[in-house]
Amino acid sequence: MARAHPWYLTFEPRPDARLRLYCLPCAGGGPSMFRDWAALLPGWIEARAVRLPGRQGRHREPAPTDAGRAVAALLDGLSDGLTGDYAFFGHSMGALLAYRMTRELARTGAAGPRLLAVAAWTPDGAPHEAMPDPAASDADFAAAIRGLGGVPDELLDDTLLRAALPVLRADFELCRSHVREPGPRIAAPLVAMGGAGDGVIPPALMEVWRTEAADFRGLHLYPGGHFFLHDHAAELTGLVARTAGSVLDAPARS
After folding, report:
1. CB 226 within 8 A of CB 120
2. Residue 151: its pLDDT value, please?
3. What is the rounded CA–CA span in Å between residue 208 and residue 112?
4. Which of 15, 18, 58, 85 is deepest in the core (most CB within 10 A)?
């Protein structure tokens, strides 16, 4: 039975897990994006699907529109679980938040994640012209959402899409608010994943991660576009598990 926390859902609680994996969704997404991950991950990893304000159980709360404030709220809301061995996985906007959270933890001297796994995003963010414009009319904004490809069919229903527009607008405003700040390379091991045919974050842009991490664990490309993870959940969870396992089993550095 799923266990609910104000900031995440655990679809398959594993109290004896060696690693807690916080999974952060893309713009417009919620915990249900990661419903199948628990069954795909090995028993020593507990997946915690982050739920942001404005969606899936938190509909009455305003969705954040500023990346810095969203990161501060996330770190506060998740603080009771950001101890011991934990990791972040984020897709698109979720990768932005995971990246910024990791940087903020390092800035404050707090213990950071043992692994940062990022998909379909870059430290510089997405080119504005590749993202839907949150200031556009409903018709133009909805058309841009459809044009991203890979958006679940049920969300493309006109009635449901209209209902989701406020959260989607807020999420894309959040994405546009991100500005990469100078600083030391990320100390946590980092593994990056992308869609070979992603028109929002092309593979060439993903290469920037190589210079962002002191311990870069590779860029892995999969067939598909920006939402490639929908068709490759088994491969992604396998990669995350293998990489996390190698990190946890590595001898401590002196």
Report:
1. yes
2. 65
3. 21
4. 85
